[in-house]
Protein backbone atom coordinates (compact mmCIF):
# COMPACT_ATOMS: atom_id res chain seq x y z
CA UNK A 1 0.00 0.00 0.00
CA UNK A 2 2.85 2.35 0.88
CA UNK A 3 4.45 1.66 -2.53
CA UNK A 4 1.17 2.44 -4.33
CA UNK A 5 0.89 5.71 -2.40
CA UNK A 6 4.36 6.86 -3.53
CA UNK A 7 3.73 5.83 -7.15
CA UNK A 8 0.43 7.75 -7.13
CA UNK A 9 2.11 10.75 -5.50
CA UNK A 10 4.87 10.63 -8.10
CA UNK A 11 2.40 10.52 -10.98
CA UNK A 12 0.38 13.41 -9.54
CA UNK A 13 3.58 15.43 -9.16
CA UNK A 14 4.65 14.72 -12.74
CA UNK A 15 1.24 15.62 -14.14
CA UNK A 16 0.93 18.80 -12.07
CA UNK A 17 4.44 19.91 -13.08
CA UNK A 18 3.61 19.73 -16.78
CA UNK A 19 4.07 23.40 -17.69
CA UNK A 20 3.87 23.14 -21.45
CA UNK A 21 4.23 26.81 -22.31
CA UNK A 22 4.71 26.23 -26.01
CA UNK A 23 6.47 24.25 -28.68
CA UNK A 24 9.74 24.69 -30.52
CA UNK A 25 9.98 24.05 -34.26
CA UNK A 26 13.06 23.83 -36.44
CA UNK A 27 11.49 23.22 -39.85
CA UNK A 28 8.49 25.49 -40.16
CA UNK A 29 7.84 28.50 -42.46
CA UNK A 30 8.89 31.12 -39.88
CA UNK A 31 12.18 29.37 -39.11
CA UNK A 32 12.77 29.00 -42.84
CA UNK A 33 12.06 32.72 -43.29
CA UNK A 34 14.83 33.62 -40.83
CA UNK A 35 17.24 31.44 -42.80
CA UNK A 36 16.16 33.25 -45.95
CA UNK A 37 16.83 36.63 -44.30
CA UNK A 38 20.45 35.62 -43.78
CA UNK A 39 20.78 34.25 -47.32
CA UNK A 40 19.67 37.62 -48.68
CA UNK A 41 21.98 39.54 -46.34
CA UNK A 42 24.90 37.36 -47.52
CA UNK A 43 24.00 38.46 -51.06
CA UNK A 44 23.74 42.13 -49.96
CA UNK A 45 20.10 42.21 -51.02
CA UNK A 46 17.44 43.83 -48.81
CA UNK A 47 14.45 42.94 -51.00
CA UNK A 48 13.34 39.99 -48.83
CA UNK A 49 13.92 41.99 -45.64
CA UNK A 50 11.64 44.73 -46.99
CA UNK A 51 8.91 42.08 -47.40
CA UNK A 52 9.27 40.03 -44.21
CA UNK A 53 9.79 42.91 -41.72
CA UNK A 54 6.71 44.91 -40.82
CA UNK A 55 6.88 48.61 -41.62
CA UNK A 56 5.91 49.05 -37.93
CA UNK A 57 8.90 47.03 -36.72
CA UNK A 58 11.68 48.10 -34.42
CA UNK A 59 15.10 46.66 -33.69
CA UNK A 60 17.12 46.98 -30.49
CA UNK A 61 20.85 46.59 -31.09
CA UNK A 62 23.45 45.33 -28.58
CA UNK A 63 24.06 48.82 -27.15
CA UNK A 64 20.31 49.32 -26.59
CA UNK A 65 19.73 51.72 -29.51
CA UNK A 66 16.26 51.36 -31.02
CA UNK A 67 15.93 51.63 -34.80
CA UNK A 68 12.69 51.61 -36.75
CA UNK A 69 12.05 50.13 -40.21
CA UNK A 70 13.74 52.73 -42.46
CA UNK A 71 16.75 53.22 -40.15
CA UNK A 72 16.99 49.47 -39.65
CA UNK A 73 17.26 48.93 -43.42
CA UNK A 74 19.76 51.81 -43.68
CA UNK A 75 21.83 50.09 -40.99
CA UNK A 76 21.89 46.90 -43.03
CA UNK A 77 22.98 48.92 -46.08
CA UNK A 78 25.75 50.47 -43.96
CA UNK A 79 26.91 46.96 -43.04
CA UNK A 80 27.19 46.19 -46.76
CA UNK A 81 29.34 49.32 -47.12
CA UNK A 82 31.61 48.23 -44.26
CA UNK A 83 32.14 44.56 -45.16
CA UNK A 84 32.77 42.26 -48.12
CA UNK A 85 32.12 38.53 -48.32
CA UNK A 86 29.50 38.49 -45.55
CA UNK A 87 28.75 34.93 -44.48
CA UNK A 88 27.03 33.15 -41.63
CA UNK A 89 27.68 29.68 -40.22
CA UNK A 90 25.43 27.04 -41.67
CA UNK A 91 23.92 24.23 -39.65
CA UNK A 92 25.88 21.01 -39.89
CA UNK A 93 23.96 18.82 -37.47
CA UNK A 94 26.81 18.78 -34.95
CA UNK A 95 25.78 21.92 -33.04
CA UNK A 96 28.83 23.73 -34.40
CA UNK A 97 26.99 25.78 -37.00
CA UNK A 98 24.00 28.07 -36.78
CA UNK A 99 20.90 27.10 -34.91
CA UNK A 100 17.51 28.38 -36.05
CA UNK A 101 14.28 27.77 -34.16
CA UNK A 102 10.85 29.22 -33.68
CA UNK A 103 9.00 29.12 -30.37
CA UNK A 104 5.20 29.05 -30.46
CA UNK A 105 4.02 30.01 -26.96
CA UNK A 106 0.62 29.20 -25.50
CA UNK A 107 0.09 32.94 -24.84
CA UNK A 108 0.02 33.46 -28.63
CA UNK A 109 3.47 34.99 -28.98
CA UNK A 110 5.78 33.60 -31.64
CA UNK A 111 9.54 34.17 -31.49
CA UNK A 112 12.27 32.95 -33.83
CA UNK A 113 15.91 32.78 -32.80
CA UNK A 114 19.23 32.38 -34.55
CA UNK A 115 22.57 31.59 -32.97
CA UNK A 116 25.36 31.84 -35.52
CA UNK A 117 28.62 33.58 -36.42
CA UNK A 118 29.14 36.63 -38.62
CA UNK A 119 32.12 36.30 -40.94
CA UNK A 120 33.34 38.97 -43.37
CA UNK A 121 36.27 41.07 -44.53
CA UNK A 122 36.40 44.72 -43.53
CA UNK A 123 36.40 47.02 -46.57
CA UNK A 124 38.37 49.72 -44.75
CA UNK A 125 40.66 47.65 -42.49
CA UNK A 126 41.09 44.66 -44.79
CA UNK A 127 40.75 42.44 -41.72
CA UNK A 128 38.92 39.13 -41.77
CA UNK A 129 36.48 39.13 -38.88
CA UNK A 130 34.33 36.53 -37.15
CA UNK A 131 32.17 36.74 -34.05
CA UNK A 132 29.21 34.84 -32.58
CA UNK A 133 25.76 36.40 -32.32
CA UNK A 134 22.21 35.71 -31.21
CA UNK A 135 19.18 37.50 -32.62
CA UNK A 136 15.56 37.11 -31.47
CA UNK A 137 12.61 37.99 -33.72
CA UNK A 138 9.02 38.51 -32.60
CA UNK A 139 6.33 37.76 -35.16
CA UNK A 140 2.99 39.45 -35.76
CA UNK A 141 1.23 37.16 -38.21
CA UNK A 142 3.58 36.68 -41.14
CA UNK A 143 5.69 39.77 -40.43
CA UNK A 144 8.58 40.36 -38.06
CA UNK A 145 7.60 43.16 -35.69
CA UNK A 146 10.57 43.20 -33.26
CA UNK A 147 14.26 42.25 -33.42
CA UNK A 148 16.73 42.06 -30.53
CA UNK A 149 20.44 41.64 -31.23
CA UNK A 150 23.07 40.20 -28.89
CA UNK A 151 26.77 40.39 -29.85
CA UNK A 152 29.92 42.42 -29.27
CA UNK A 153 29.80 45.57 -31.45
CA UNK A 154 33.61 46.07 -31.45
CA UNK A 155 34.05 44.76 -35.00
CA UNK A 156 31.47 47.21 -36.37
CA UNK A 157 32.87 50.12 -34.37
CA UNK A 158 36.43 49.41 -35.60
CA UNK A 159 35.35 49.21 -39.22
CA UNK A 160 33.24 52.37 -38.91
CA UNK A 161 36.24 54.20 -37.41
CA UNK A 162 38.47 53.00 -40.27
CA UNK A 163 35.86 54.27 -42.75
CA UNK A 164 35.81 57.72 -41.08
CA UNK A 165 39.60 57.88 -41.11
CA UNK A 166 39.73 56.93 -44.80
CA UNK A 167 37.23 59.65 -45.65
CA UNK A 168 39.25 62.25 -43.71
CA UNK A 169 42.49 61.46 -45.58
What keyword list fits this structure?
169 residues, alpha+beta, eight-stranded mixed sheet, 8 strands
Question: How is this structure best summarized?
Answer:
With 169 residues, the chain is α+β, with helices and mostly antiparallel strands. It has 5 helices and 8 strands; from the N terminus they run αβααββαβββββα.
Write structural notes for this entry.
By secondary structure, the chain is α+β, with helices and mostly antiparallel strands. Helix content is 38%, strand content 37%. The chain is built from 5 helices and 8 strands, in the order αβααββαβββββα. It has helices at residues 2-16, 29-42, 47-52, 69-82, 154-168, and strands at residues 22-25, 53-60, 66-68, 83-88, 99-105, 110-122, 128-140, 143-150. Strands 1, 2, 3, 4, 5, 6, 7 and 8 form an 8-stranded mixed β-sheet that branches. β2 (53-60) and β3 (66-68) form a beta hairpin. The chain is elongated and about 60 Å long. 13% of the residues are buried.
Overall helicity: 25-40%
Distance between the termini: 88 Å
In the predicted model, the low-confidence regions spanning at least 5 consecutive residues are 8-16
Count up the helices: 5
- Percentage of residues in DSSP E strands: 35-45%
Determine Rg (CA atoms, Å): 21 Å
Helical/strand content category? alpha+beta
- Series of H and E elements: HEHHEEHEEEEEH
Mean pLDDT, to the nearest integer, reads: 88
What general outline do the C-alpha atoms trace? elongated
* Main sheet specs: 8 strands, mixed
What's the number of extended β-strand segments?
A: 8
Amino acid sequence: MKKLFFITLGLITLISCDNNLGIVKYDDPKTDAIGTVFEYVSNEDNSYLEEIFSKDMFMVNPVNDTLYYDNFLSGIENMYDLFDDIKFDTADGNATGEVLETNYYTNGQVWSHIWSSFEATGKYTGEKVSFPFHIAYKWDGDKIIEEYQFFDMTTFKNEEQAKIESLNN
